[in-house]
Design goal:
With 292 residues, the protein is of the alpha/beta class. It is built from 14 helices and eight strands.
Length: 292
């Protein structure tokens, strides 16, 4: 049986033609939507979501193409553009009765959240991004041999066919690799949760690759257009990251500050999956954000 977030109700919500999202919902009060990363599902938020639900309405969806949400076939870059996935999330919140809401994302979910905040500034009240750079900045920061740590970004950027075939040949080895090397404390992802992540990814290879492929194409175009136009995030922003900048030679806080004038940037000592390794610290940072 697939694990669930204890105390949360599960709903399927139609957000676009032929696309419904699976979402866990609980609590009452000002709403916050939590978006998961790779190679995970909404379950990554299980500890933080339960904490925040004490005084907020908490919504944890599986993104388009992931988990138990629908996985439309890629018909071009727009299918899994972060702009499209962000529109899904706005539609989800609206269907659940929320015209304005705070948004926090980890990894891929943070890229969706970033795009939602730029495209829908009247809707997103607060933004938190965990352990990413904006897409355009990420590609500009990845240079030379240090870029080898992001080999999956380059693999899944290739045209349709080869990446899907290679990953589908050994999905547990591929996705499990990241669950292993990005975790400082393996106990943070217990066996039943790890199995749920691998099951979900095994069933979603084409859509996960399409999500990454969009980030090497249309997502960069959208970010560049916004940067060239001088668009910035209008809402309070919190960013938590590992200190990748020290390892790869960039100033993460400065890159984020160029997008977010009202920024609080912090580094963490836990692994990439911080909502599972350090949930109390993440929940505290989100509460601090919501108080601004």
């Amino acid at each position: 049986m697939t694990p669930a977030i204890t105390g949360f109700d599960y709903r399927r919500v139609l957000v676009a033609d032929g696309v419904s999202l699976n979402a866990a919902v609980a609590g009452s009060g000002t709403p916050i939507v939590l978006l998961h990363g790779f190679p995970q599902t909404h379950l990554m938020w299980r500890h933080v979501a339960a904490d925040l639900a004490a005084d907020h309405t908490v919504i944890c969806p599986d993104l388009r193409g992931y988990g138990a949400s629908d996985k439309p076939a890629e018909t071009g870059g727009a299918t899994y553009a972060k702009r499209t996935m962000a529109t899904d999330i706005v539609a989800l919140a609206r269907a659940l009765g929320h015209e304005r809401f705070a948004l926090a994302g980890h990894d891929r979910g943070a890229l969706v959240a970033f795009r939602a905040a730029l495209d829908h500034p009247e809707t997103i009240t607060h933004l938190a991004a965990l352990d990413v750079l904006p897409t355009l900045d990420m590609w500009e920061a990845m240079r030379g041999t240090s870029a080898a740590v992001g080999f999956h970004l380059y693999l899944m950027a290739q045209p349709p066919g080869l990446p899907e075939q290679m990953i589908a040949a050994g999905p547990d080895a591929f996705f499990g690799h990241f669950l292993d090397i990005w975790t400082n404390d393996p106990r943070a992802i217990p066996a039943e949760v790890r199995a749920a992540y691998l099951d979900a990814c095994r069933d979603a290879v084409p859509s996960i690759v399409a999500d990454y492929r969009a980030s090497a194409g249309v997502d960069v175009e959208h970010d560049r257009a916004d940067r060239d136009a001088g668009r910035r995030l209008r809402m309070p922003v919190t960013v938590l990251q590992q200190d990748w900048g020290a390892a790869l030679g960039f100033d993460a806080a400065a890159l984020w500050n160029a997008w977010a004038p009202d920024l609080r940037h912090g580094t963490v000592t836990c692994g990439h999956f911080m909502a599972e390794e350090a949930p109390a610290a993440v929940a505290e940072a989100l509460r601090d954000l919501l108080s601004r």
